[in-house]
Amino acid sequence: MSAALLVSSVRAGDDAERKKHENEIISKILQDWKARSRSVDTLILEANGTEVHPKGLYNNDPSLPQGFNGTFPKEDYAGLAKEVFVIDYRQGLCRNETLLPLPNLSVNPPVMDQSDTVFVYDGKKVALWVRGLDPKNPSGHVNWYRPTGVGSRMWFNIRYDPIAWGFGNVAPEGIGRNKIERLRPSLKKSDLTYVGVAECRGRRVHRVRVGIRPTGYTELWVDVERDSIIVRADWYSLRGRKQHRFKFELYYRQADDRWLLKEWSIWVKDGPTTRLTVTRLEINKPMGKFEFSIPTLPGMTISDERGPKTKRYRVDKNGQLIPLVDAKNTDRT
Questions:
Q1: The whole model's pTM is what?
Q2: How far is CA 233 from CA 114, 125, 237, 262, 313, in A?
Q3: Which of 272, 250, 248 is nearest to 259 (CA)?
Q4: 104 within some domain
Q5: Least confident range of 27-31, 240-244, 313-317
Q6: 144 has which bridge partners?
Q7: Rg of the chain over CA atoms, in angstroms?
Q8: Is the pLDDT higher at 321 or at 6?
Q9: Is 303 within the bounds of a domain?
Q10: What is the DSSP string of 34-67?
């Protein structure tokens, strides 16, 4: 036998042995999950195309060997839980079982470029991913926090670096990238510092409170029904320009498995004083309620872009919204 054939034969044997070992591990994982399926309502798996990495099992199953990258077809996990969602990094929401891109549910999640902030509610836990600079790991770009259970709380304090990332990474679907590039030289790191807290209360409600220094806090409340599980929020501040934009997206699923996206933006312009009041805007959905609050200042002008026409309001000294009727009410430019 020639050396080349010998090497080929050895490699084939190694491949077969490795495949056998992987199949044994996969079989054990599936048996474990099937045995626990009575207590599992939702199983979230990391997907790569149509294959699933076992190490992506929700809650990072401790029985998985370190560094194992084996895959198994999605038919094998059918019946493991009442609901199975597959996270696909590349395809987003193109399949019914696919959620928004999320990092790997592991200790060191990879850097992703599809979203800035994603909240996923599965009835038991709230998962949050914020792309930013990790203060504990300056060389990294991702921080990942998750509550440990119902009633728990998670804090995040992420600073975006506009020089390293570009302002477009903070609001990829916001103002145009050309305008972003023109604004970037005037921005400092402190202009994009966010602090916040997210809470998981029971099986249906979680609250996200986000602060934009030094302008106050934005509160995002989500009354989560069973199929309304994804909320994405983008927010940014142009400090010194006296203008702030809050952009929220809500993905929710109807009974016929169609995904719907509701998106709106609100621009807030600072007034001359520092007295804070709260304006509460509320939108009711067929399968849940989406409500958020923004800090308002007397004299502040608010543009509401939720409908086909932009509505503008001015905040009076008592914190009440006074509609503004002028030619700019329909001008979206």
A1: 0.20
A2: 13, 18, 14, 12, 23
A3: 250
A4: no
A5: 240-244
A6: 129
A7: 24
A8: 321
A9: yes
A10: HHTGGG-SEEEEEEETTEE-GGGSTT--TTSPTT
SS3 86: strand
Instruction: Note whether 267 and 238 are within 8 A (CB).
Output: no
Main-chain dihedrals φ then ψ at residue 24, nearest 5 degrees: -65, -40
Spatial distance between the Cα atoms of 230 and 260, rounded to a whole number of angstroms: 11
Q: Whose CA is closest to 247, among 231, 264, 226, 261?
A: 264
Distance CA 331, CA 246 (A): 18
User: What percent helix, strand, coil does the chain show, rounded to 5?
Assistant: 20, 40, 40
User: Which secondary-structure segment (H or E) carries 180?
Assistant: helix 177-183
Q: How far apart (Å, rounded) are the C-alpha atoms in residues 299 and 56?
A: 50
Residue 291 lies in a domain: yes
For residue 35, what are its two tokens?
């045995």
Calculate the dihedral angle through the C-alpha atoms of 211, 212, 213, 214, rounding to the nearest 10 degrees: -100
**Tens digit of pLDDT for each residue in 109-145?**
322 222 333 333 333 332 333 333 333 333 323 233 3
Q: Is the bond into 65 cis (omega within 30 degrees of 0)?
A: no
Residue that wins the pLDDT comparison between 265 and 67: 265
Domain encompassing residue 17: 1-99
Q: Are strands 288-296 and 243-253 parallel, antiparallel or unpaired?
A: unpaired
- In this structure, the answer to whether residues 319 and 183 fall within a common structural domain is yes
Residue 239 makes CB contacts below 8 A (sequence gap 6+) with 190, 191, 214, 215
- The pair of three-digit structure tokens given for residue 52, joined into one six-digit string: 């699933």
pLDDT tens, residue by residue, 257-280: 444 444 444 444 433 322 222 233
Structure tokens at 240: 């010194």
d(CA 263, CA 251): 9
pLDDT in tens, 84-115: 333 322 222 222 222 223 333 222 232 222 23
Tally of structural domains, the chain: 2
